[in-house]
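I hope you will forgive my troubling you with a question about protein structure. Could you please explain, in whatever detail you think fit, how the structure tokens follow from the sequence? Thank you for your consideration; the sequence and its tokens are set out here.
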Amino acid sequence: MKLGFTSAATMAALCLALPSGSIAAQSPSTASPQSAQSAPAQPNTAHAPSSQVIFSRSVDENGEVSTQSGASTARPEIRTVTAPTADDADRRAVRVTSLDLDVHLRTAEQRIAVRALLTVRNDGNTPLARIPLQISSSLTWERIRVNGRDVAFNVATLNSDTDHTGQLLEAAVLLAMPLAPGASLPLDVAYSGTVPADAKRLLAIGTPDETALLSDWDQIGVDFTGLRGFGNVAWYPVSSIPAILGDGARVFDEIGEQKRKLWGARFRLHLAVEYPADQAPTVALINGHSVPLAVTGGSVNGEVDGVATAVLGPITLGFEAPSLFVAIRTLHASPHMNLWALAGNSDTATAWTNAASRVVPFLENWLGERPSAQLAVLDLPDPQDAPFETGSMLAVPVRQASPDTLEGPLVHALGHAFLHTGAPPPEWLDEGVATFMETLWTEKQNGREKALETLESSRQALALAEPGSPGQSAGQPLASAISPIYYRTKAAYVLWMLRDIVGDSALSAALRAYVPGATVNRPAIAASPGPAIAEVAAPPSGPASGPAAVPASPLARAAAELRQDEASRSADAAARPPFEKLLERSGAGPDLAWFFSDWVDADHGLPDLGIASVFPSSASADSWLVTVNLSNNGYAAAEVPVTVRSAATSITQRVLIPARGKISRRILIQGKPTQVQLNDGTVPETQASVHVMDLDQTSQNQQQ
């Protein structure tokens, strides 16, 4: 769907034709847990757009374009109802598989008008009699067409904190024939309204005004337009289950569920921005992608000062909420990052680009180089605005900060940029790798203990979210997780555990092989003899000689071979998760089926480890044999480091402790043992992630 904007005059005519009617004002949201309740009762009155269409253009099923002008014809009524006519079963069944948007912004008026062609599929088990679609309560439904015909529909207001207003406007379209399970239906919808800054949902739960607006900064404006999508502002149609802040994690789970439902959807957007004279936007970012703006200046009949247009797509959506940013900013380009800063932040922008240059070599050694490895950074209006990231884009206040403060977040953001080179990766790898890289940078700068402290800071929240047993709750398998505590925190732990199991070199080779389009002729991480910290190898002295260059190291060659090995995989191996296969073929050696079964493909909760008993005995004049009995009361197996210390030395061995099981390990050490430690913080547990038993002389004598 593309309307032919061949001139500013045509653009002006189209914009004047946009309906200006709006549904009666809605009352503010409350923090009531009755999330599916409608807003306060309103009269059942018919509603129709109040504007007159002076110009319209449509495309029929044969691709023929027709143009009409004059008065609008009568349309089926839009009924405002006091209670929703759709239910949660309807909302859960609807899945959007294609989203084609024509978006018009009038930035001076904070106004948006959208025509959307979307394809919905019935993912439920029973036929759908109605299709529920929702937008932000600050917008107005104008028109819905099914199979080329206008249809009547009911509009209800839902209390839901998945939008910054605290409410969603739901249109329930009654179908002439129910939509069968698995069947799809194209819809043509139009809506418009304003998007000012609004923090009603946060104010309703007692958040101070200024703090609330620094978090809910979504709005349309001349200098800055930021629409982060469902979870912040529903500027495109969704079919969601209402959720209220304070009701556990339901709001965040619903945000993740909507991202999951959009995974793999076909997406396209045509953007047109009307702007005041001499205030043309300089950057547009759609779904994190920088798109070129075609700017037309000059006045058209005194109505429009200028128009800027941009197009994205068609593309395939990953685990993301479609987002739209348009702003007036100054570009600061560097080899690895495009930073759009406010006019007064030029000096600060230089510090950011320098910080990015310092961390990129570290990421290249782990992930390989990628073509067009550009991170997009957009300066937010207020220095205290909450940061936001999507794909390879970071929206953040570009303020002055120390290098240490800037480098960690840039490692995370650039980690996303390395992975977003082709088809979107699974979210647990996308967010997990970015978080993992950030903790590795902390390890590189401040040591392993500091990095593990960073992991530990979020372990308790993960333990609370995890099911106590498989029968208690299904949890969230990492491969299909929708909550950040899983696809960010647990995923980072999983990568740390894999690092200790297979080694830095094998994990780096697998990540390089996994990243689409990554070059592999830079040396991978230096090999290490065990789980000890491995330093990053220095980059080569010169660039590769071209596409035909031979990889410079065996590990790099292994990564290249892994990507070429798809055709030769056996049927059994092909059934395994691809990343697991890459790890096993990267020189790691061990069969990782048990690990992916318990930690990625299913959610068995966290292990509950303990040191049951320790029996040291003298083996010779200067050596001791220590028998360590270990237990795991959890439902997930874990390979954990066990360390025995004496005054002279320490010995660490890795032990695989089965779920709901016990195991003994004998460790020979020089000198009398003084302490036994189970786990070092790399394996998350339900209660703690480090267990220490001190062995004093008395207890040793008793145990002998």
About this structure: The radius of gyration is 29 Å.
